[in-house]
Amino acid sequence: MDWISAINLNTKNFKAEFGDCTPEQLLFKPSDQTWSIAENMHHLIVFNQSYFPIFSQLIAKTFIPSWSSRFSYINNLFGNLILNAVREDRNKRIKTFPKWEPVNLFPDQDIFTLFTIHQSELAEWIQKLEPLLGKDKIIHSPANKLISYSLDKAIEIIVTHEKRHLNQAMEVKKHFK
Prior knowledge:
Layout: H1 3-18, H2 23-27, H3 37-49, H4 52-60, H5 72-85, H6 111-129, E1 138-140, E2 148-150, H7 151-173
Antiparallel strand pairs: 1-2
């Protein structure tokens, strides 16, 4: 899979869908249980950035895998469970870990600039990781070191997760008057 193209497409789709929205629309929440468009985008930044220290350690060859990474069936199980949970066509909402919740955003913050810069940074990380992809390199979740899966699966989770939140943000847009 060409992950960089997929990330660029996700960025383009967010801009195409929400680039003309006012700051008020970007922060609009149909209910207290629903994130705004801006919160969905900020959540993706926070979620994706939580992988960057792991990526940095992999590149520096200082990454220390968790003990659970020695069991390939566990790695495959966790990776597939997480990927299925973040699929874009899955309608069931999942409560995120507190470390990945979006912060309060303000109308004067340019979420598109933040998101675009972040997506470029994510693409750069994937380019740097290219020599490690397809090599069954096992990492752990940024949320829990006991949850391990392949680096390739992590990238797939990130890209799929972005598509899921694009769809969630599009649901919010349907509530605009």
